[in-house]
Amino acid sequence: MAHCTPWCSQFCGERAMCAASCLSMAVWLHYCSGGAAEALSAAPGNSEDVMEFQERTTPDAITVQISGRWEFTDHDCLADLVALMAQPETRRFVLDLSDLQFIDSAGLGMLLILQDETETRNIGFVVRKPQGDVKNSIELARIGDIINIEY
User: Fold this and answer.
1) CA distance 138 to 15
2) What band does 50 get if pLDDT is binned at 50, 70 and 90?
3) Under 8 Å CB-to-CB from 6, ≥6 apart: which residues?
4) pTM for this structure?
5) 56: in domain
6) Which CATH number goes with the domain that contains 122?
7) Spatial distance between the Cα atoms of 133 and 138, rounded to a whole number of angstroms
8) Is 23 domain-assigned?
9) Kind of pairing, strands 52-57 and 61-70?
10) Mean pLDDT of the chain
11) Which of 99-109 are b and which e, b meaning 16 or more Cβ less than 10 Å from the residue's Cβ?
12) Which residue has the higher pLDDT, 47 or 31?
């Protein structure tokens, strides 16, 4: 069973989602019931897999293909992803997660930060094709309530 931190306990309820910003600019998502926090942070697979991304630019969109594992240790890549949005003609930012094998709560938080950045810049934001454990984590955290997810 997940336990609430003192900060978020005032917001807790049955399957309530609490968010707190951490110093690394990642947002930790934490469910306060039913052990969902453990489900989000359970990391199957090889810890040596790293997140990699490749960008493809079209006249009005940037598509970023992310592969590997998106974890807390990848928070340095967040600035690189935000920098890709700086092109003035960009109207749409697409993250293709079809090759992403795992995402932890910090990676989910980075998705929310990217959503905020695109919103600030009036850029459309889409997360495309999450699969397997990544799709399950996104659904469990209810990220689709905030971000446009294309399955």
Assistant:
1) 15
2) confident
3) none
4) 0.68
5) yes
6) 3.30.750.24
7) 9
8) no
9) antiparallel
10) 76
11) ebbbbbbbbbb
12) 47
